[in-house]
Amino acid sequence: MIDLYSAATPNGHKISIALEEMGLPYTLHPIDLKRNEQKEPWFLAINPNGRIPAIVDRAEDNFAVFESGAILLYLAEKTGQFMPRDVKGRSCVVQWLMFQMGGIGPMMGQANVFYRYFPEKIQPAIDRYQGEGRRLFTVLDGRLRDHEYLAGDYSIADIANWAWVRTHGWSGVSVEGLPHLQRWIEAIRQRPAVQRGLLMPPSERDLAADDQANAEKFAAEVRNMLETGQSRH
Q1: 64 and 118 co-located in one domain
Q2: Where is the GST C-terminal domain (predicted)?
Q3: Model confidence pLDDT, tens digit, residues 57-93
Q4: Are 17 and 67 in contact (CB under 8 A)?
Q5: Is residue 107 in some structural domain?
Q6: Does residue 18 contact residue 197 with C-beta atoms inside 8 Å?
Q7: pLDDT recorded at residue 224
């Protein structure tokens, strides 16, 4: 059994989706970011960086793993799923996983901050991060032109990138004119395990995305957390 400490963010949903895809039994422990639970001593004993997600593998002497990319690698190696066993195949998955960890996630995260949450509209910063997000999307689109998934078969690289790319509207980054990326987004969205993972826990951001009033309310709540140093999205 695995204990998952998480919240409804793209990084959190990476892990709940992976657990659902792998069929691993787990217990979700939602972390209330608004109450700063991720900074409490009991959680810092699991993840000294005070961020979600984190897991504790009870079957392995309560082994704790933090950082979403590291958790995905751990789970893939533990189960032998969604990660090739050959050196080249594994490297390909890791490369696209690192592409998300070093590019897609940070750029979209900063786009969220300046486009949605920052109290002042600093247009050069918005343009910078949305533009870089769009550039990274074109890289994905180019890869997906000749590949059904990013690294051959469906893998943890797809899970990691998709959990962020699916939220492109919230970041203000368009996917228009990127047909291969759009095809990939929709194909993964249809997977039953992905749909289940997105509900562990459900995202207020998803519920707010199509409603301007609720979107503004959600953004204001996140802005307050950012101003008080309580969270990172």
Answers
A1: no
A2: 86-209
A3: 999 999 999 999 999 999 999 999 999 999 999 999 9
A4: no
A5: yes
A6: yes
A7: 72
